[in-house]
Amino acid sequence: MKILIVTQYFWPENFRINDVAKYLVSKNIEVDILTGEPNYPSGKINVDYQNNKDNYKKYFSANVYRVPIFLRRKGNQIELFLNYFSFILSSIIIGTIKLRKKKYDFVFSFATSPLTSSLPAIYFAKIKFCKSIIWVLDLWPNILLELGIFSEKNFFYKIIKKISIYIYNKFDIILVQSRSFQTMINKFIKKKKFFYFFPSWPEELPELTNNKVLEKYKNINSFKIVFTGNVGEAQNFDNILKTANILKKHKDISWIIIGGGRKLNDIQTFLKNKKITNFILEGQKDIAEIYSYHQIADVVLVSLKGTEFISCTIPGKLSTYLKCGKFVLGFVKGESKKIIDESKAGASVDPNKPEELAKKIFFLKNNREYINKVLKNSLGTKYLETNFNKEKILKNFKMIIRKLFSSYEKIQLIKDAKDIPFSKNFILSGLNLAFLGYFGSGIVKLNKDLYHWPDGIFKNKFFEKNIKKLSGMQLIRNLLIPDFIKNIYVLGNLSEISKKYLKFKFKKQNIIHIALPIDNHTNLYNLCKKNFNNDDLIICTLPTPKQELLAQKISENSKYFKIMCIGGALVVASGEEKAVPEFLDNLGLEWLWRLRNDTPRRLKRLLVTFFYFVIADLKFKYSILKTKIII
User: Fold this and answer.
1) What domains are defined for the chain?
2) Peptide bond preceding 114 in cis form (omega within 30 of 0)
3) pLDDT of 620
């Protein structure tokens, strides 16, 4: 199994997609990652990456392919737009070149904001003819309205909404980090989709004590509220600051904010204007230091704006907070509130009521025994193990992709006449342009009893394996029929020369010919209708797709069926018609040779077949491109 992960952010940047990639390769799944150059969150290229690029071409055994992007820099709107757009453009153009010889079973998109970063994954799923999975972490496009970025009537919002709907509809499977996401996304889905709950697990924080952090705060005798993570609009800092302003006279309460984001400048301005001195902005810290900040915390704070769609989100930090074993103070509603309440690992307050948060903080400061009572039984850790265990979540993901992999329609291919499964029911047909065209257009279908021999275009861009061609003539001439077969029924045309050939080759079997006209498969079935037995072999000499449709009809109405759909191969095998010269056969131009006889009929048939082949491909109904070969 081969998976391409498309993500704008990847190691050495710290995102949970790193864990996904590591887990997949540990299960012997081949993984490639297409990503940008690491510059999050600082906006500058990661220094170690810049100096040691060769060290970042492999992540465990996964191949990492990086494309150049416009850096985030200071993160203003223009720079972020260029950053996001450049990843899309660079992934499609440069990624196509880097992955030109690669083939995949799945493309997996790690869909952080903006959702448009998933467009390259859709593109690669199409050109690589494979299925696609998206992990949705933010609820687009609605979140843009609630963050005040656009109004509903805004022209750009309308465009983004159409793009978001397009993205949701193009993926085969949608993984949602919150169960509420499914309900919201379903409003945009035109056809039924497979949804799976795929929450964020706790970050792997190195349990290393940073003495500088401990030293800095050990002499500050205060109630410490620690917040870690992105400092942005969604995190509801406007109301957090209102709370801080209410409590600013209580110097025994300290707010310690770890992280960076677009709200930092606004926060600094507010603190200066309101003369708040107990609100400490530590800025972005290395992941190795976060453990120490959890150690000094009396409570850890998770906050989100209280709007409808943002409240559906489960911040990744929440599971990390549960793991750190501290009292979780939630300034949240919706999914996050539900988790805090169910886990009994803390308390939550309506995010639209800063006064209530101030009261709750004041209560907790003066009632430390209440905090200790909540933490005494490690309820957060127990809840975490049940609901956010990383191994369980990733194991479930593996089961999802295995299930999706098994849902691929499968072409069961035999390489030689000796591989024909005479011991059971089967339909055998040539895998060639005619079959591919009619299959891709939905006229004929695969089923568990259908087998093919490699009779035509079965390699190059269509399938991973280069398989030696086996013509219908070779199949017939190499055919060995087991002794238990007593009768050979030929349905369709059978000349005297071909009949003598069969009688000479298969002396132990009775040759029974049922002549059939050119007609639809239902009428053809009525003309040859009978109960076939386990000792009967049926040979169809009709053109595709009539012979396959007739074979399917027989299989649906007979307990026993052993059917070979060989078309015109018998007249070549018997010598009645000259075989295609080897050089034309090797070039795939056998159709040109056959046009020399019965030219009008065969030319018409070739054009019809090619029409179905092309139309099916253009409409992307060409299911064979999403089909796996089984030999």
Assistant:
1) 2-197 (3.40.50.2000), 211-388 (3.40.50.2000), 410-630 (no CATH)
2) yes
3) 41
Task: Give 57-108 pLDDT, tens digit per residue.
Answer: 999 999 999 999 999 887 778 888 899 999 999 999 999 999 988 888 899 9
Identify which of 6, 146, 129 has the alpha carbon closest to the alpha carbon of residue 67: 6
* pLDDT value, residue 14: 86
Within 276-418, residue ranges assigned H as helices are: 287-296, 316-324, 335-343, 354-366, 368-376, 379-387, 390-406
The answer to whether the bond into 543 is cis (omega within 30° of 0) is no
Q: What is the mean pLDDT of the chain?
A: 85
Instruction: Report strand pairing: 131-136 vs 173-176.
Output: parallel
Number of CB atoms found within 10 A of residue 53's CB: 11
194, 436, 453 from 408: Cα distances, Å = 15, 16, 19
Cβ 228 vs Cβ 300: under 8 Å: yes
Angle ∠(125,129,133) on CA atoms, nearest 5: 35
Residue keyed to tokens 């494309």: 67
Residue linked to tokens 């150049």: 68
pTM: 0.69
Q: Is the pLDDT of residue 625 over 50?
A: no
d(CA 222, CA 253) in angstroms, rounded, equals: 5
Q: Can you read off the two tokens belonging to residue 67?
A: 């494309």
pLDDT confidence of residue 332: 93
Rg, Å, the chain Cα set: 33
List the alpha helices (DSSP H) in 219-313: 237-246, 264-274, 287-296
448-505 pLDDT, tens per residue? 899 998 887 554 444 445 677 888 888 999 999 999 999 999 999 999 999 999 999 9
The order of strands in the sheet holding 223-228 is 279-283, 253-258, 223-228, 299-303, 327-331, 346-348
Buried/exposed 276-288: b ≥16 CB within 10 Å, e otherwise: bebbbebeebeee
In terms of Cβ atoms closer than 10 Å to its own Cβ (0-12, 13-18, 19+), residue 152 is exposed
The residue written with tokens 């309506």 in the block is 350
Closest CA to 109 of 121, 91, 96: 121
Please tell me what DSSP assigns to residue 199: P
Give the residue carrying structure tokens 């949970």: 16
What tokens were used for 530?
């009978």
Characterize the bridge pairing of strands 30-36 and 2-6. parallel
Name the phi and psi angles at 174, rounded to 5. -115, 120
Give me the helices (H) in 119-198, please. Answer: 119-127, 142-146, 155-170, 179-186
The angle subtended at Cα 568 by Cα 564 and Cα 571, nearest 5°, is: 105
* Burial label, 346 (beta-carbon count in 10 A; 0-12, 13-18, 19+): buried
> Which strands form 194-197's sheet, in the order they lie side by side?
58-59, 62-67, 30-36, 2-6, 106-111, 131-136, 173-176, 194-197
What is the distance between the alpha carbons of residues 552 and 547, in angstroms, rounded to a whole number?
9
Burial of 110 (C-beta count, 10 Å sphere; 0-12/13-18/19+): buried
